[in-house]
Amino acid sequence: MTPQNDSSSWEQDWQPVINRVGELLDDDVWRFGPDRVEAGAIRRFLEPLELDSALHTDGEVAREHGWPDVVAPYTSVWTFMMPPTWTPAHGVLYPDDAGRDSQPAWSPIGDDVIPGAPPTSGVFGSDLSLEFDRPLHVGERVAAGPRRLVACTPKQTKVGRGAFVRFERDVVVESGERVCRMTGEIYLYDPHPADEEPVHD
Q1: Is residue 57 packed enough to be buried (19+ CB in 10 Å), middle (13-18) or exposed (0-12)?
Q2: Which of 157, 163, 190, 201 is surrounded by the fewest CB atoms within 10 Å?
């Protein structure tokens, strides 16, 4: 077994991020999704799920139950909030064949950028939860607010050495009304060298 370098130094590299727990990671702006909620997109979202609630397909039924129009399933909020994953201007997202450690050429959400974090070559999402106040309605446009840092935990794992960074953000519509709070966590890391057996907790 080949030991890693002194762990204390790489863990200390994350201290500037740890010191920012409780602060905003981004400018205090709201980033709107590219499209309004519309009935056709909801219908396509429902098809593979075979979800047949009339609240999602019939405006009259939705209004009878107190909603202004057809409502989107809670789980579809990401569809309307997330920036485009691909556009012709950006070209191929994965130009390299690096196997499991392959990274996209650009990120549509930018959540791999953590101010003050040491440079790392890999990132993946490790957790996501959404706490809803209400669903979205047809015609609304949804925006994600800035991320607030909740925790930064340096950790060596089987895939590499880095830190789990947890943050939360509010999701709102154009009126400013919050529809949900999102909590996410990403793991920023450097993969273990191919010839080195990983040491992990």
Answers
A1: middle
A2: 201
